[in-house]
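Section 3.1: Structural characterization of target chains.
Under the original work plan, the team committed to producing a structural model for every single-chain target entering the pipeline before any wet-lab resources were allocated. The record below documents one such target. The sequence was received from the expression subgroup and is listed exactly as submitted; it comprises 346 residues.
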Amino acid sequence: MIIGLSRLAVRKARPWLLRGGTVAAGAALSLSLGWLAIRGTNWEEVRDALSASSPLMVAVAVALVLVSAWVRAVRWRLLWVKEKVSALRLFWIENAALGVNNFSPIRAMDEALEFGILTLRDRLPGSSVVATMMMCRVQDLAFTLLAITVATATTPVLLRLAPAIVPLSLLFVGWLAIIASLGRIVNRFPRLGRISAVASFAHAVDTLWSRKRRLAVTFSVTGTYWLLLGPAGWAVARSAGIELTFQQAMVTVLGAIFFATALPGLPGAVGTFEFAAVALMELWGVTRESAVTFSIILHAVLFLPPMVFSVVVLPREGLGSIRAFREMRQRALQARAVPPSSEDGT
């Protein structure tokens, strides 16, 4: 009996141990990379540069980030085929969910939150919510890989970062291939199709894949919202008195986001983001102090607005506490288990 209870305790503790191990590994990685980014920095120069930065250019950068977020919400709205949901509603929800991700040490909260709010508050079909969210991720991955390929081909100095770029790119290609071919995988392995959540996801994604014209339009919108971040990075550089070309700013912003979001780390990607931004800025001949100043301002411009959204939006959705969020997440997981036929009313 004691052995049985011990085994039961181990089984129950295993998820917590896994999460704790992931958080600890991410924290260690962030701290290590953050230290590499700032070692040897003259902090008096950084402090002076931050004090002398242009508030107007920072405000311009924030405005561009918000416009980019609005375009991203429009992209999500275009992926909804039958259901009616406004771009403004999606704008609030998506940014609030990203803000929760920035608060969390494990960046996997946004999709659960988006799914919960849209299915429980807006009464939207779970299969459609999952399909549109995943298609957004597919398009983001595809455009990011395309941008990295073009940037590497046109900027030979980026080849110095090949040891970091290649493994992460292969990881993204793998995820992209799995998501794109999920329907065929489910058809080949019938046991997967018996899992309602997997079947629902595969069915909804296949439905979207069949609408090639809509996907082409949304992919162009995806490119638009990502490209808007280039001028935001350029404005941040100007605020810190750094001269960058548009292409250099674009590569720096996309590269820092790509690197920081692909790896586990501290909340808000602290450390990993600075490491990537500083490494890229030094490729353009920027001094360590100026690069650190740029990374701090850019990090705040990109990550703070969604965190403000989460603080404002979530209490309005009845999610002002951890307990309320957990209850909503549990109900959302139960709703996700509903087969696609019952959700679609067919």
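Residues 2-38 form the longest helix (37 residues).
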